[in-house]
């Protein structure tokens, strides 16, 4: 079968997919957390693997950076490969003073400056939100592990280096917890396909405290989030 961006055959991808942005992190998850993992995609080096975790078939695949990239990969997973749920596991920059490095932020909703929703020709503004069952399961799993979790609004931005230095201040005053670059597109694709989606983020830097995790600290923080996504 395959698509222009995914060489997997139908049936090679599990109903649940974990999706980090970095394809090398997908490789890391497959090698360190999954049993008998098999690579199903190498197109554009956007690596994808299917294996088992505690006897359950599960896949992991990179989604790239930004709305256009994750929009392509998640659309194909939902529509071409009959995936039922996608859990994004990524990093984010904190906007609020009470959100700290290493915190896990679960995106209940995803504000965005992207024009992605224009394709649906809606008579208003669409609010991209998480699937409630996945959200509840994730929060409960985080609490069982004794980790810190925040659930609320995040910002999915199309711009990493913004020419306007005031944009973060304006999202911050609306209570937005953190900024990333993919959740809104994932949530819109899930809504349109009638499927499930959740975005979980590890805070890797703070935009108002000049704090950031080292490479090793990022790895440990991501391991916690990966374990949460697997144990949900």
Automatic annotation (TrEMBL):
One annotated GO biological process: uridine catabolic process
Residues reported to bind phosphate: 21, 25, 44, 88-91
EC number: 2.4.2.1
A Pfam short name: PNP_UDP_1
Molecular function per GO: purine-nucleoside phosphorylase activity; uridine phosphorylase activity
Keywords: Glycosyltransferase, Transferase
All copies of domain Nucleoside phosphorylase, residue ranges: 15-212
Site (Important for catalytic activity): 218
Active site: residue positions: 205 (proton donor)
Highest taxon above the source species: Bacteria
GO cellular component assignments: cytosol
InterPro entries assigned: DeoD-type (IPR004402), Nucleoside_phosphorylase_CS (IPR018016), Nucleoside_phosphorylase_d (IPR000845), Nucleoside_phosphorylase_sf (IPR035994)
Binding site for a purine D-ribonucleoside: 5, 180-182, 204-205
Catalytic reactions of this protein: a purine D-ribonucleoside + phosphate = a purine nucleobase + alpha-D-ribose 1-phosphate; uridine + phosphate = alpha-D-ribose 1-phosphate + uracil; a purine 2'-deoxy-D-ribonucleoside + phosphate = a purine nucleobase + 2-deoxy-alpha-D-ribose 1-phosphate
Summary of subunit composition and partner proteins: Homohexamer; trimer of homodimers.
Function in brief: Catalyzes the reversible phosphorolytic breakdown of the N-glycosidic bond in the beta-(deoxy)ribonucleoside molecules, with the formation of the corresponding free purine bases and pentose-1-phosphate.
Family: Belongs to the PNP/UDP phosphorylase family.
Entry protein name: Purine nucleoside phosphorylase DeoD-type
Natural source organism: Dorea formicigenerans
């Amino acid at each position: 079968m395959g698509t222009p961006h995914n060489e997997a055959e139908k049936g090679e991808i599990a109903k649940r997919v974990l999706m980090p942005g970095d394809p090398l992190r997908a490789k890391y998850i497959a090698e360190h957390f999954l049993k008998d993992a098999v690579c199903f995609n190498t197109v554009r080096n956007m690596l994808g693997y299917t294996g088992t975790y505690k006897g359950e078939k599960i896949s992991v695949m990179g989604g790239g950076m930004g709305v256009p990239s994750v929009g392509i990969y998640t659309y194909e997973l939902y529509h071409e490969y009959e995936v039922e749920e996608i859990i994004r596991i990524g990093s984010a920059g904190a906007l609020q003073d009470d959100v700290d490095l290493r915190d896990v932020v679960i995106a209940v909703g995803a504000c965005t400056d992207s024009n992605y929703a224009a394709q649906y020709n809606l008579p208003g503004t669409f609010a991209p939100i998480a699937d409630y069952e996945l959200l509840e399961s994730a929060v409960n799993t985080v609490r069982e592990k004794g980790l810190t979790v925040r659930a609320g609004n995040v910002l999915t931005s199309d711009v990493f280096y913004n020419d306007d230095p005031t944009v973060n201040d304006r999202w911050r005053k609306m209570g937005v917890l953190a900024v990333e670059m993919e959740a809104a597109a994932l949530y819109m694709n899930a809504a349109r396909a009638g499927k499930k989606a959740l975005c979980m983020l590890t805070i890797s830097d703070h935009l108002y405290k000049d704090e950031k995790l080292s490479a090793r600290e990022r790895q440990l923080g991501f391991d916690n989030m990966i374990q949460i996504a697997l144990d949900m």
